Amino acid sequence: MKSEKQTRPRGTAWHRRRRMLSQAIEAIALGEFARDGYANVTIDQIANAAGIAVRTFYRYFANKEDILRAAAASKREDDQRHPATTERASD
């Protein structure tokens, strides 16, 4: 029997929903970090703010640090897709 990773092609509705929830959790967590400070925010708080169970959080992220890694990766991807168009002023 094949695993879900092997049987589901990328870009399916399942993958889109998973990506959307992951991005939502990430955005909510970053907001919590900004408001209360990274060290003061718990996984329980993030899950509660996102309206998900703690167990669901762990399906997407191993810990709070993974959220920061995902945010950094998202930023790099955005920067690659949309390079800065402003030119540096020359002296």
Describe what this molecule looks like in 3D.
The chain is mostly helical and 91 residues long. It has helices at 4-7, 13-36, 43-50, 54-60, 64-81. It has a domain at 12-74: Arc Repressor Mutant, subunit A (Orthogonal Bundle), CATH 1.10.10. The chain starts with a helix and ends in a 10-residue tail after the last helix. The protein is flat, with a radius of gyration of 17 Å.
Unreliable parts:
86-91
Overall morphology:
flat
Distance, first to last CA: 65 Å
Structural class: mainly alpha
CATH-defined architecture of the domain at 12-74: Orthogonal Bundle
Q: What's the order of the H and E elements?
A: HHHHH
**Portion in beta strands:** under 5%
Report the CATH C-level class of the domain at 12-74.
Mainly Alpha
Instruction: Summarize the biggest pleated sheet.
Output: none
CATH homologous superfamily annotation of the domain at 12-74: Homeodomain-like
Number of helices: 5
**CATH level 3 topology of the domain at 12-74:** Arc Repressor Mutant, subunit A
Binned, the helix content reads 55-70%
The whole-angstrom Rg is 17 Å
Nearest-integer average pLDDT: 86
Count all strands and give the number: 0
Quick summary of this structure?
This protein is mostly helical and 91 residues long. It has helices at 4-7, 13-36, 43-50, 54-60, 64-81. Helix 2 packs across helix 3 and helix 2 crosses helix 5 (64-81).
